[in-house]
Amino acid sequence: MREMLADALEVFDRHSGWIIWNLFLAFIPLALSFWLFRRRHISRTWFWWVIYIIFIAFLPNAPYLLTDIIHLIRATRAGYSVWIITLIFIPLHVFAILSGLEAYVVSIINQNHYLKKLGLKRYIFPSEIMTHILCAVGVFLGRFRRFNSWDLVTQPDVVLAKTLDDLTSKKPLLVIFITFIVITISYTLMKQITFGLMLQFRRIYLGLEELDPEEIIKK
Question: Tens digit of pLDDT for each residue in 50-65?
Answer without folding.
Answer: 999 999 999 999 999 8
